[in-house]
Amino acid sequence: MNSSNIFPNIYRFIGLVAVQVIILSQVSLAANNYCNILLYPLFILFLPIEIATPLAVFLGFLVGLTVDLFIGTYGVNASAGALSGYSRAIILHQFAPRGGYSSKEPIPTPQYFGWRWFLNVAAIFFAVHIFWYFAMAYFTPVYLVGKILPQTILGWFLTMIVVVLYTRIFHPKV
Question: Which residues of 58-94 are buried (b: 16+ CB within 10 A; e: fewer)?
Answer without folding.
Answer: ebbbbbbbbbbeebebeebbbbbbbbbbbbbbebbee
